[in-house]
User: Fold this.
Amino acid sequence: MLLAAHSRLMTVMTKPAPTGARTGSARHGAAFWLVAVVYLVALAFSTIPAPLYPLYQAADGFSSFTVTIVFAVYAVGVIVALLLAGHISDWVGRRRVLLPALALEIAAGVLFLAWPSLTGLIVARLLTGLGVGMLTATATAYLLELHTAHRPQASGTRFEVVSAAANLGGLGTGTLVAGFLAQFVAAPLRTPYIVFLVLLVLSVVAVAAVPETVTAPAVKPKYRPQRVRMSGKSLVAAAGAFTAFAVFGLFTSLAPGFVASGLHHPSRLLAGFVAFLVFAAGAAAQSAAGLVPAARRFPIGLAAQGAGLVVLAAGMLATSLWLFLIGGAIAGAGAGILFKSAVGRIAAAAPPAERGGALAGLFLVGYAGLTVPVLGLGIATLFVASTTAMLWFTGILLAGSAVIFSRR
Assistant:
């Protein structure tokens, strides 16, 4: 995700455009939109399984806890790639990282088709996570540089809106398209992957055609994993990111299955729409948050996320789909604002020389939020009903949000 920034983003933003860039060229303008589409397709591919998990469960007979394991493997892949390869495009070039990242996703798509068992699902999700971890970092920086080369005198508004739409919008689009295909097209565990494999191959062609924005240094720096630095001032922002990622993790792991079993709406299209709604609300809120003073975004995001969780819990207790959807949309909007604010706070607080490490630390904490709470939720489903487990989950998140709000 996950999401619309990367560990080297603010460092890149302080650098001038490469001397070799054709400032203001139409080619860079076209490349900006091509990379945005590639970004959206790659992130959409990563969420295809979300509305399909109930079908996998029915086919292989595994539990909700196993779903959380499969989901956690993906998050681990993202973290590993982010720390080991998320920063190397700064000197090897954007395309030379994007192309192998897309190749990993294509390999994952082939595995989804050829090895549909639980083991194959786990391996494919790990490859997907590795590809997304490499791609999110690189594509975000690439979009910024192409935007600057095309519109050197313009503000960064277009970049911010498009990158947020490609990232969170892509995550939501994947669930919606997969749910639609699973509902109305034959072979629901195969057709979505075939469609996206075609799109990923076309994405490789697009990346091969766009101009590079990084000039390789005469002497390449010695490789080392991305350093992670976080000061005490960043801990509150990181804690907010943890809860935001936990909300997104809930809606791409167990929530689609809960809609089918707990709320008695087995439609696969609806399962995809639930996750899409949360991500779309987050992307829209991130764009709208630019109209709000930066100092107010963090508390607004926390408050909206908390209010959404309360409505979500009410929908579970009342077994009301509409309340559940409204709560998810509000919580997703709050999570989107909260994460955007956390990135801004940490980037502003860190010295320029340590900004990349500070943001890497934020992503590490964020993806821990994507993994640990969802795993805990999966363990809880082994002992209590899914409704009870999800109510505990929302209660713990609410309590954590209240503590963060008091220390903001």
About this structure: The chain has 16 helices and no strands. The domain at 9-14+25-215+231-406 is CATH 1.20.1250.20 (Growth Hormone; Chain: A;). The radius of gyration is 20 Å.
